[in-house]
Amino acid sequence: MINVPEEDAPILIVDDHEPNLVALEVVLESVGVRIVRATSGNDALKEILRCEFALILLDVMMPELDGFETATLIRGRRRSATTPIIFVTANTPTRDQLVKGYTVGAADYLTKPIDPLVLRAKVGAFGELYRARRQIERQSAELAEARLQQERLEARADAYRYLAESIPQQVWTATREGALDYVNTVVMSYFDQPSSALLGSGWLSMLHPDDSVNAVARWTQALADGAKYEIEFRLRRHDGQFRWHLGRAVAERNRDGNVIRWFGTNTDIEDHKRAEAELRRAVKSRDDLLATVSHDLRGPLNSVLLATDLLEPSAESIARGGTIIQRSVSRMEDLIRDLLDMASIESGHLSVEARPLVIEDVVADALETIHPAAAAKVVTITTDLMTTPKAAIHGDRRRLLQVFSNILGNAVKFTPASGRVSVRAIPIEGPYIQFAIADSGPGIRQHELPFVFDRFWQAKETAKAGTGLGLAICKGIVQQHGGSIWVESQPGSGTTFYFTMPVSTADAH
Questions:
Q1: Most CB atoms closer than 10 Å: which of 240, 275, 469, 500?
Q2: Where is 87: in which H helix or E strand?
Q3: What pTM value is reported for the model?
């Protein structure tokens, strides 16, 4: 088996035409994956025996074994049964071909010539999925190994007391009734308490209040049936911090099988819990990204397919179909642009070309973009941009238009008909100007406010079409300028978004 570095996701590209393989390698050079070539279906099957792949890009039309036959054989092998396959075809697949492809396990279709941005986005997403799965497998193995070591210690229950003072772990013993009668020095040091304060039921005072009921119930059940005791709970360290622990205990029995004593340990797993939470967030972020890309691209792609099916040899039909296709392509471009901006923000490489800008000009341009939507709902927009004419800020005009247009667009979208939206510029202490964009909409519930600027967040009860990336991008742009952004809202009382931008000391043009 080929050993693949953890950061490297192997991608198998299968095509009997050499120039096509070269073109795919060039497009995917910047994605951070390792490309493996195969020039036929048989060669692809050989490569699959040597390596587990994150994704297979499979040409449909090939001699000997075509793409569908190759995919069927790939799915028939246990090791590659779940490997994602994207078919690549020179012609738009018919409905029968689509059904056949998905029947043999295709995840998607790409039609030549392939859009490089779409190809990189799809391959990158599957690469991240592969790396996340490998990370989960490694952590599961580490956890299994840790638990195996713990079980080995428990198997030597009769030697615990002799080993207790020589291992850097909390070790304790209890009577058959469940009262602690011994704790090692690690326990006393961790809690900064003498053993007398912890023996008997004194240890209960170290439990987090939210965990004590469950811990006592589980311990009581273990005492009743003599089964192995295992629980995760939080214990208060000597500095007052509650940290997660894995508590485990096994019973020592006499020849008659009756419990005569309990041997237990507490293992600090706080760092592991945090790593698990971070991994869950990463997996959720990946799933959200895949869901957004698949949903938001599928809609306009279906519109394009429908428009082409409905085209007739008339000027009116061609114009109508062209409008649908242009609108769908625009939606896909918006999604891809948002994804690229989000990736640039998270990598710290967002491009910002700052220069002196007149506040009134930037706001006027933003208002122009949302004027049709405001007019359609008869929403009144007022501005108060300071008393000093031609006040200037230092920023990137295009990026600031993104911020203003996104927040104003949301304000108009969530404001009921005949409502109000206001834009204010407020001088504050220091070299900054504070902007406030307020609406008379339904507001945001208090428990949702901390998540407003998270990726893919949307107001669940009132959300409309969108990627859920807009406000996250706004936050990244503002912070890249050295400013800050926040939101204040009360249900039924509207919402106000605030952000600050640096004042320009030079003349704006």
A1: 469
A2: strand 85-89
A3: 0.42
